[in-house]
Amino acid sequence: MWQRWRSLHFSPVFLGLFGMLSLAGVAAAQPQNNAHRLTIEQLLEIKHPSDPLWSPDGRHVAFIWDDGGVYNLYVVDSAGRTSPLALTTFPHGEVSGAFWSHDGSVLYFPHGGDLWEVAATGGGPHAVWTTPEPEMDFVPSPDGMQVAFVRPSGGKPGTAEGQGSDLWIRSLASNQETHVVHDEAGIGGIRWSPDGSHLAYNGGMRRIPHNVSPSYSGAKLIFAVTEVTPGRLHVVSASGGSPVAIDVPQGADSSRWVDATHIVCEAVSSDYKTRTIYIADTTTGMARAIHEDVEDKFWSIPYDAGAEAQPSPNGRWIAFLSDVDGWDHLYVMPASGGAPVEIGKGDFESWRPAWSHDSRKIAFDANAPGHPGDRQLGITMIGDDPARATITYITSGRGTNIEPHWSPDDSRLVYQHTDPWNSADLFVTPAAAGSKAARISESMPAGIDHSLFVAPRLIHYPGANGEMVPAWLFVPKNLDRTKKHPAIVWIHGDGINQNYDGWHVERHYATYYTFHQYLLQEGYVVIAPDYRGSIGYGREWREGVYMDIGGKDAQDAWMAGDYLKTLPYVDSSRMGVWGLSYGGFFTLVAMTKQPTLFRAGIDVAGVVDFHMWYEDPYHSNWLISRIGTPEQYPEVYARTAPIDHIDRLARPLLILHGTADLNVPFMESVNLIDKALRQKKGNLISFMMYPGEFHYFDRTHVLRDAWQREAAWFATYVRGKKASVY
């Protein structure tokens, strides 16, 4: 398998021609050799496509285009012969959850608590129906003639003060409604059985707010965290009646129908050491375990890798991901149970598997040994025997190709591609090696000079305990290497994330990659480490944080600064560090444990105290899996709290945080600033809050301010250049 990959990966299609996209010969935007410079305003115009949906006849693809936090629905010819057509133009659009009508003439989507529709040829969208109650979780039936949805019974569904939720079915032809079931709390995770006769759902889910306001915040400023209680899996007839509770652990999720009377789901144990896949008889509710993964440390396959059990459309097989051999690989087993077959072996990670409609093939994306930041699309031919499966890779070259979706006739795939010169866009390719793909979206603004973008280079440097840390080094074009230049260490967030060979595959982190292209233009050398805990390098590396978050992983990150010192063209006295979320936490660790290594730092929504983060029920499970509870291991929590060492701060620190942040509550930064003031460090700290902004910063006006503020901060304190510091 590796020999086959290798011949594809080093295909000369890309290596010899910058102007060609590395996906079996797809033409990309040609570079323009001019003196243009990248501007913040220009870079803010880069959009991001997601959620591609094939039309029933395969002639069109609908998708969501994110334009600075405004999400609208588009449709495009699947051959790429026309430009995408905007079906919605909501100025504050948050369109998601769209689906096609059975005949492909209409697209439906939730909006403002109602179901809306718009003709696939364009025209004004409008509500299919309106009711006083807000409705949610619209899911079409297999034949596309009905839609299931949730309507609150009173109050707010799933909250302590609510009166429960109801599951309804409505005919899209006659608008006749059928009440299916009532739940005293919340309903979610709705899935139709293949024959449309039953519905699976999670019931009993509640969201309980808690006030955690510190005494110094004032009488009118309230900070809250939300406790989410897991639901139980149920199945009910589409015509109504008593639901059948499925005998799987509370909180079991990722349920999928195997056939008309069986459902598969999975659960991770409370200590995060066991992942179990169950199959259940929906007529009796009885379930049995058909596969189990047991980990020495914790179950750690990335949340968006598609690791959950996925039945084949014909109900014969179940595919899933496991890291039992140390790498995330695809496995297939009989739906009735039996030994799983590993599809492909080697030091690479396979993610996002997708069954073909004929149940004979699985498409997926994977990296290759020595190329952790490039991802290619593969197709494994299962046929009638997984043990004889063969793998063919249908993309090659530099960049990432991810998240394949089969066309209705299984002849083509739509997927997302990025590389060092192109941000995320959608492409359609025949499901065969050597085929030419068609680009169906163009997310960069017209006129942008692709030749100005700087490609990263994968390097390794010694980190904590001498472990070699992979990292991506960016050196500005035409840099005079006889002189010393300023440098920036960027630390990605999430822990379970990574940098890629080009634009990041996720919208949120793609914006930071974009901003670094601006910093490179300003003359900074940039390095982005994939510290231990990062994904894409196998289980051992990503589980290296066990019982040690904020320890060797944080040291890996700030030791990128030590590596920069070895480069003859880097000025070791002018280095900055910054990061988002977990990367913001590492920035705070670096600024307090190595207070003179960096000239300045920027913390974007970083955790300041994991004990505080644990108390937010939204996050406690993540911490339990890695370092247990504060009661079990108080010493581990104590050494992972940069707020307790803020007295060591010696260099300027900029803190940015959104007030609507659920990942790292805004209160964390509030507490950090209060503690810094008590330690007489207020002269070193600058703070900007963004009202209503979420964790990553999405909206254009927020990004504009943040980028300008960050650029000015580094210019002043790292480059030593006079700049207007906000």
Core attributes:
about 725 residues, disordered N terminus, alpha+beta, 5-stranded antiparallel sheet, Rossmann fold, 2 domains, Methanol Dehydrogenase, Chain A
Q: Strand fraction band?
A: 35-45%
Q: What's the number of extended β-strand segments?
A: 43
- Radius of gyration from the alpha-carbon trace, in angstroms: 26 Å
* Structural class based on helices, strands and sheet pairing: alpha+beta
Integer tally of domains: 2
- Would you tell me the overall average pLDDT? 91
Q: What form results from the Cα inertia axes? A: globular
In the CATH hierarchy, the architecture of the largest domain is 8 Propeller
Question: What is the CATH homology-level superfamily of the largest domain?
Answer: Dipeptidylpeptidase IV, N-terminal domain
- Predict the CATH topology of the largest domain: Methanol Dehydrogenase, Chain A
Number of helices: 13
Helix content: 10-25%
> How many strands, what sense, and barrel or not for the largest sheet?
8 strands, mixed
Task: Please write the CATH class name of the largest domain.
Answer: Mainly Beta
- Strand order in the sheet with the most strands: 36-37-39-38-40-41-42-43
Low-confidence stretches: 1-34, 155-161
Structure description:
With 726 residues, the chain is of the alpha+beta class. It has 2 domains: 2-439, Dipeptidylpeptidase IV, N-terminal domain (Methanol Dehydrogenase, Chain A, 8 Propeller); 454-719, Rossmann fold (3-Layer(aba) Sandwich), CATH 3.40.50. Helices cover 15% and strands 36% of the residues. It has 13 helices and 43 strands. Strands 36-37-39-38-40-41-42-43 form an 8-stranded mixed β-sheet, sandwiched between helices. Strands 15, 16, 17, 18 and 19 form a 5-stranded antiparallel β-sheet that branches.
